[in-house]
Amino acid sequence: MSILTYVGAGQMASALTYPVIENGHEVRLVGTPLDREIIDELRRSNFHINLKRTLPDSVKYYQVEEVEEALKGADVVLCGVSSFGVDWFAENILPIIPDDVPMIAVTKGMIDQEDGSMITYPHYWESRLPEGKKLSINGIGGPCTSYELADKDNSAVAFCGRDIETLRKIKAMFTAPYYHVSLSTDVIGVECAVALKNAYALGVSLAVGIAEKNEGIGVQHYNSQAALFGQSVKEMKQLLNLVGGGEENIIYGAGDLYVTIFGGRTRKIGTLLGRGMSFDDAMEELAGVTLESIVIATRTAKAVRRLAENGKVDLADFPLLMHVDDIINKGAEVDIPWKAFETEKF
Amino acid sequence: MSILTYVGAGQMASALTYPVIENGHEVRLVGTPLDREIIDELRRSNFHINLKRTLPDSVKYYQVEEVEEALKGADVVLCGVSSFGVDWFAENILPIIPDDVPMIAVTKGMIDQEDGSMITYPHYWESRLPEGKKLSINGIGGPCTSYELADKDNSAVAFCGRDIETLRKIKAMFTAPYYHVSLSTDVIGVECAVALKNAYALGVSLAVGIAEKNEGIGVQHYNSQAALFGQSVKEMKQLLNLVGGGEENIIYGAGDLYVTIFGGRTRKIGTLLGRGMSFDDAMEELAGVTLESIVIATRTAKAVRRLAENGKVDLADFPLLMHVDDIINKGAEVDIPWKAFETEKF
Prior knowledge:
The structure is a homodimer.
Chain A: E1 3-7, H1 11-15, H2 17-22, E2 26-30, H3 36-45, E3 47-48, E4 53-54, E5 60-62, H4 67-71, E6 76-79, H5 86-92, E7 103-105, E8 110-112, E9 118-120, H6 121-128, E10 137-141, H7 146-150, E11 155-160, H8 164-174, E12 179-184, H9 187-215, H10 222-243, H11 250-261, H12 265-274, H13 279-285, H14 292-309, H15 319-330, H16 338-341, E13 344-345
Parallel strand pairs in A: 1-2, 1-6, 2-5, 6-7, 7-10, 11-12
Antiparallel strand pairs in A: 3-4, 8-9, 10-11
């Protein structure tokens, strides 16, 4: 039996209690300062108020001030914060994880740097480690929504990190008849692919709203969604190349894009925008919902624009990303640049 | 004004009358022996009984015995037969197309050869040309359902062929504000990508049926669909490599896979199989429906198995294709080989 301490009691981390408990391990679920109510209710009834599922009986719950106790004797730490908690995690949790305890994060995203390069969260956290501290920081990517994982539907994901042996050890704790885990030491490739899909899921969802605007709510037109899907795969492949990730990770990107398009929050904002709502109005309609897609799209576009200024890429190769950025950050109306997607290869 | 003669009055060819007529060209739509009723009704009312749309007024209609008249003065010939009409087209139409008239086909598919290699329809037709005859044979690939094209939704496709100038000339006749055309001289890559998606759309659709079996008709589970989508992209990329097509064509494959999963016939058979119906019963339920996915999956699996016998590929790299083939051709029950999808990359 191993002890796994989860920091962040969001939906994905909480859904990941099922396979690990089933494998006979101890799980300690620690709330962030934002998770206080979640932990309170879990302690009362084992019911997760956001995931809307009852967690396994034996999960142990902790509020954030009890985190040091929760880390005692831990074999693995799982980081379950959202993109918005990345710095909080760096400042408050990274320094107190023992050097010999590997960590794995469900947080998906990338951070753009001054020179236009982007780094993954594992790399960012490594750069934020206190001087002299060493930590094995791993990540989880791939198409997996928390609800369906909690319901034990089949899900396939990738664990990535620098050391394959560490990944194998962590996988043994998480794998389940319904949770299928591939391993990769290409951290940049996996993390970049699954981060980018957020931005592009918004792009594809625009077509959902455009069709609804023209023909009525609920009408689905798949040719235009598929065209944007193909364009997304193309731009994501180019971005993978740019950041030095293996192109084969498009597998995770495409799968993750697929599930995100059907998944909820990102589809909602894309659909509202496609219907013709302004970005500000759409954000107001979705008030209180965390939208990582907005953060990722903005960051990626910013990075690509800076690379273009330095002559390293051609903005014309990223027409969909640029349009999504124009909508989000420059008040542009939705007007898909279809003709810019056309190419000639000979 | 140019004259375009379409041979085959199926849904896709008929939908392609709209942009070409709008561009001011003459379209002559010739039915195959199977299209007699379609042409009869079109002559009466311009209404296409399968596409369920009224075609543009000025389209001219021909029964198959009038094909030579329809070809007189044609600038381009469009082949609109299905996979099942490929040999009929080779025997009856190819010989009577003048050498200087380029042809473009909407037929998607590939043919497996004795040695396990597969060839595209354009290549197959080239091999079937009468001795000494030369013909420019081009193809159309990409995610585009006929209904949505007829309704002038935005669709993005690829025209492929040996000569970029010919492709540009044909594109000029077809392009429209809602019909976006990329060009590629990588015929194998484009044709292979869009043919394969038929087989894999069936594979992804299995997850639709499995979820319905467990939870009731209409329930959608996207994690498992996305996992199969990712696995499909992976196997399709490998197959593209095998046939010598550029991997970047996965853009068309992924987009086309996306639209096919939502598109109708292939999804139906996959869903029925996923629910637990035997292949024979499912085919009976869908009696009369042409299922190119079955043909493509069977041919591709056969080719891959033969390549494996010759030591050229490892069957373990194609677990989803093999499972689909086992279901279709060996009476196997649906039992997704999830663990075979797991990989290690380091």
